[in-house]
Write a structure and sequence with these properties.
The complex is a heterodimer of chains A (97) and B (309). Chain A is α+β, with helices and mostly antiparallel strands and 97 residues long. In chain A, 18% of the residues lie in helices and 21% in strands. In chain B, helix 6 runs parallel beside helix 8. Classes of the chains: A alpha+beta (97), B mainly alpha (309). The structure holds fe (ii) ion (2 copies).
Amino acid sequence: MTNSVKDWPLWEVFVRSRRGLSHVHVGSLHAPDAEMALRNARDVYTRRQEGVSLWVVPSAQIVASEAGQRESFFDPAADKVYRHPTFYDVPEGVEHL
Amino acid sequence: MSSFEDLLADDGRVEPRDEMPDDYRRTLVRQIAQHAHSEIIGMQPEGNWISRAPSLRRKAILMAKVQDEAGHGLYLYAAAETLGVDREDLLDQLHTGRQKYSSIFNYPTLTWADVGAIGWLVDGAAIVNQVPLCRCSYGPYARAMIRVCKEESFHQRQGFEILHTLSHGTPAQRAMAQDAVDRYWWPALMMFGPPDADSPHSEQSMAWGIKRFSNDELRQRFIDMTVPQAEALGLTLPDPELRWNADRGHYDSGPIDFTELFEVIKGNGPCNAQRMAHRVRAHEDGAWVREAASAYAAKHAARTREGAA
Ligand SMILES: [Fe+2]
Ligand SMILES: [Fe+2]
């Protein structure tokens, strides 16, 4: 039961600025339900035609990687330089490779 | 706390779930909340003139500007909340006088020209303050400021345009424009805060990358920008000591009477009581809308649950 503003969930707002681009996080707002969140997001984040599509997602539903485990989580990618094209030797004069 | 120090040394950005010193968090909450409060209280002096704007064009522009200020308040409250505080609590602290807003909004808007002076000088000074905040070390604050700064530029221009129209109008309109500039010039300069020598928090804020330039540097930047604009308007600024100093490459200006600023901060400005009373009344008058929205959401959530059962 949400009876006071304090209980209004936080929603994360994502805007697609034009067709062909992905939705990008722009900020957050409080609203009692999804419909109000969407309407408020339109008024707060797209007053100057910043978007053609909006997503609102309850912040509580977002699962995030742990800030404190950033190293153990992401560092394994650091020693795999062979995933980048610059790792490879290309003989002089070879093009389009 | 070495990761925090390393981040700052690298000119990196601090994000909400990072470790940060308590004082850094407290300073940001205080500053962002005060900034948010200023945006929403700042709607009042101009809101006064929406119903009396001289044309439909001016009325539409002024409504858009005042609505932008409400939006700025929301971006900033949202940024403050990423530091673990609650918007309702911040509003409560504003309403009970435990948190402040910018003193500039405690001056009255006596004539239509004041709307022009506010856009040109007050939004102009706010922009000078806010542009460096786009590089603030705290990510959510910096991102909010980028949105705010994009929206501010029309605010300043519409004010300049109002004054330009008046200063090229009848002698009475011209006098009205000059009077507004005379009254708003010194309060606008005080928006940059006390002189560097008396600014208690500045040094720490600079070390933390929250502040990038000192109060006096920003004030000088504003003066240098504004003097030529006043000339373009054909209006004078009420400081007989204003003159170009070729050696410094800046305008020299006369001393600012900060006793006035401190009186206004203490609550003795012309409109402090009126602004707070209006704010609290607006919040109370809107309670039924918030309650209705809550009740509607609760009813529909219950129906969805029954439907699923
Ligand atoms: Fe603003
Ligand atoms: Fe503004």
